[in-house]
Design a protein that fits this description.
The complex is a heterodimer of chains A (417) and B (284). Chain A has 417 residues and is mainly α. Chain A folds into 3 domains: 41 residues; 103 residues, no CATH class; 221 residues, MetI-like fold, CATH 1.10.3720. Chain A is built from 20 helices and 2 strands. In chain A, helix 12 runs antiparallel to helix 15 and helix 15 packs across helix 17. Chain B has a single domain, classed as MetI-like (MetI-like fold, Orthogonal Bundle), CATH 1.10.3720. Chain B is globular. In chain B, 44% of the residues are buried. The chains are: A mainly alpha (417), B mainly alpha (284). Chains A and B meet through helix 2, helix 11, helix 12, helix 13 and helix 15 of A and helix 1, helix 4, helix 5, helix 6 and helix 7 of B.
Chain lengths: 417, 284
């Protein structure tokens, strides 16, 4: 038999295979068109702006554009001794242009990020530069302030020549590129970010652990109680889940303050003296307590949904085979709940690692997390590129954790209670 | 939970310890919410129980903070509530519309690159809010939408759609596609089929996704803090400012109202979940 006779045709005379492919393609396009509006919307308003954060975090064109002549003439300078007259001359010309355009303030802010002490000497230079005579700029600039005769400051300017920089990322882990271009740690007493990263990890880890220890028994109780009781108790989990985050934080602020309910109770039962009430808020304790209670439902719900599917006859079988209740629990029940534990722990950990509101309100100085630092740079110092860099470092961490989550439970298994 | 008669004593003790632990955890979960309630009726300006309140003296209770919340001249709660509701309603409508349509496409077995697209669509839920806030702020600032209602509504649509996508895809996973084929074979056009057949069946999922989107928008503070100007203040922003500057009992009055609102939403969501399970024929 030849292949032509085997081919099945539709009523239109088109081969069935081609016709089927055409229909499939049509369906594919149809499905895609339904998703397209949301996908496009998110790409424009959300995904690309995250890419924009990436650009901002490495973008260093500002200084490059402000001192074009200086950087051009610096190319030939090896950096071993003071730069030649040509560099001083072009720096003077660039700087005069910036002063005319009133942009010298921005330059001094930017250069001060690289090395402290630029602000005052640039101000002094602006004052003195008006009376500069033509020629021999090197001598004239070096006479303005002794730091201008210090090669370190000229090397600092040179470091800002590239249009892209990794300095914001290095700053985020308390490192910087020194004069020789080597990556080194900042001085011991100025390492604030590493402490913050470690504290964020520590708080997220212990909050996850506390949530797990508290959620496991109640999820088990909810899953084993008869429906009519468990539905009632489920409200205790779902009501906080649906209640505004700020309301829950407010209630903890009332409870934990020095004249608050918890302290009143401690005084009443004689645990602490009335004039010696412990500080339970505006420190780590406050962050731990409030975050644990707020994130607890996110642990209970995945655990509950897994435990609900475990048949009680398995425990009975374990017992009838001679296991004590503890052994049956440990060997039969616990291993079956591991998917729920994984889901709950990673969910809580991801949420905790990026928490902002609660630590900002009850955390004080010692209980704030990396998110608070990002918000601080967005709103107060306006160093948006640094905020972007820190945000992306956090995002990379979260995505890594999320990737593990996806491997363990799968993206489709996110339960919303 | 009754123990069988033959239970050995040390397991009996363990059982009561277990019940005790569970009671403590439930107390820890729910009790903080109930502290707010009585304190919002405090006649005095303090945020702790006065002697009068402890002895249940009627004079120690008053509605003054509720009056302050509604009529207080300095209090922007009225404007904040109006803004919050307007923003939340439009954000919910937007999220439900975009999310449901996308979920229909995603549930089709012909959808190409399903995993990647799903991950993109629900990414605003996974990315920490502070990062979303920074990214959305950069976009809105460039588009000239910072400090406008439109900007905040768009931001909340971004944050709300993942919930709608997830709940609607979940509802559609148990959907019997032969009913839509039956409708088409009887001569119904796709739009008519969707409105008359598909939508009523997936409605519980759509509404519960909408509820999530509403609550997300109504309770959202991180992104709004970056975006809002004085004109766009919302309830969460006012609460945030109040909690940072000074805790006034008026905040507790507002908080009580919010707890009542969340109770209503909880009841609705629970009823919808049960109805949806019944419709999909999941018997438990």
């Amino acid at each position: 038999m030849s292949s032509e006779t085997k081919q099945i045709l539709t009523t239109d005379g088109i081969p069935l295979e081609a016709s089927l492919k055409k229909a499939e393609r049509k369906n594919k396009i149809k499905a895609f068109l339904l998703v397209a509006p949301l996908l496009l919307f998110l790409l424009i308003t959300y995904i690309f702006p995250i890419g924009d954060m990436l650009m901002r975090s490495v973008d260093d064109k500002m200084v490059t554009e402000m001192l074009p002549k200086t950087f051009k003439s610096m190319e030939k300078w090896n950096g071993n001794e003071m730069p030649p007259e040509e560099v001083f001359k072009s720096f003077y010309l660039d700087f005069q242009k910036l002063v005319e355009e009133k942009r010298d303030g921005k330059l001094s802010t930017q250069l001060n990020y690289t090395k402290n002490g630029f602000k005052s000497i640039l101000k002094k230079l602006r004052r003195k530069a008006k009376n500069f005579e033509e020629g021999n700029y090197k001598e004239q600039i070096m006479a303005v302030h002794k730091r201008w005769a210090d090669i370190e400051y000229w090397l600092a300017i040179k470091r800002r020549a590239p249009a892209y920089t990794s300095s914001k990322y290095l700053k985020g882990i308390d490192m910087y590129k020194n004069e020789e271009g080597k990556i080194v740690n900042v001085e011991e007493d100025r390492r604030i970010h590493r402490i913050l990263w470690l504290r964020t990890l520590e708080i997220a880890f212990f909050v996850t652990l506390l949530c797990f220890l508290m959620a496991y028994p109640i999820a088990h109780l909810l899953a084993t109680l008869p429906m009519k009781y468990s539905n009632l108790l489920m409200i205790c989990v779902l009501l906080p889940f649906w209640t505004s985050l700020l309301v829950r934080t407010a209630s903890w602020m009332i409870l934990l303050q020095q004249q608050g309910v918890v302290n009143d109770f401690f005084v009443m039962i004689g645990l602490v003296a009335d004039d010696n009430r412990p500080e339970m808020m505006y420190n780590k304790t406050g962050t731990y307590v409030a975050m644990t209670q707020i994130l607890l439902p996110f642990m209970v719900l995945p655990l509950y949904s897994v435990m609900k599917t475990i048949s009680p006859s398995l425990m009975r079988a374990g017992k009838s085979l001679g296991g004590t209740p503890f052994v049956t629990f440990w060997k039969v029940y616990f291993p079956l709940t591991i998917p729920g534990i994984g889901a709950g722990c990673l969910l809580v950990f991801i949420l905790a690692i990026g928490y902002y509101i609660t630590p900002a309100l009850v955390g004080g100085a010692s209980g704030t997390l990396i998110s608070n630092q990002i918000a601080f740079h967005m709103k107060s110092t306006l160093d948006w590129s640094f905020a972007s860099a820190m945000g992306l470092m956090l995002l990379a961490g979260v995505l890594a954790i999320y990737w593990i989550y996806n491997k363990l439970v799968g993206i489709d298994n996110i339960k919303l209670g | 939970m009754a123990l069988p008669k033959y239970t050995e004593p040390h397991y009996r003790i363990w059982h009561y310890v277990y019940i005790f632990i569970c009671t403590c955890v439930f107390f820890f979960l729910i009790a903080p919410l109930f502290v707010i309630f009585p304190l919002s009726f405090n006649a005095e300006e303090f945020l702790s129980f006065s002697e009068g309140m402890k002895s249940l003296d009627p004079d120690a209770f008053s509605l003054r903070w509720y009056k302050d919340m509604i009529y207080g001249t300095k209090n922007p709660w009225g404007l904040a509530a109006k803004n919050s509701f307007i923003i939340a309603i439009f954000a919910t409508l937007g999220s439900v519309l975009l999310g449901t349509v996308a979920a229909l496409g995603l549930s089709s077995r012909h959808m190409p690159y399903k995993g990647l697209i799903m991950a993109t669509l629900i990414s605003p839920m996974i990315v920490p809010l502070i990062i979303s806030g920074v990214a959305i702020f950069f976009f809105m600032a460039k588009a000239g939408l910072a400090a406008t209602h439109t900007g905040i509504v768009l931001a909340h649509i971004i944050l709300g759609t993942p919930f709608v996508v997830i709940t609607v895809t979940a509802t559609l996973s148990g959907f019997d596609h032969s009913v839509t084929r039956a409708a088409s074979s009887l001569g119904s056009d796709p739009v008519n089929t969707f409105m008359k057949i598909t939508l009523p069946l997936i409605l519980p999922g759509v509404i519960s996704g909408g509820l999530f989107a509403f609550v997300t928008s109504f309770d959202e503070v991180v992104v709004v803090l970056f975006l809002a100007g004085l004109e766009n203040t919302t309830i969460p922003i006012q609460m945030w400012t109040g909690l940072r500057e000074q805790l006034s009992p008026t905040i507790l009055a507002v908080a009580t109202c919010l707890i009542i609102l969340s109770t209503l939403i909880l009841v609705t969501a629970e009823l919808l979940r049960r109805r949806s399970e019944r419709l999909r024929g999941i018997n438990r």
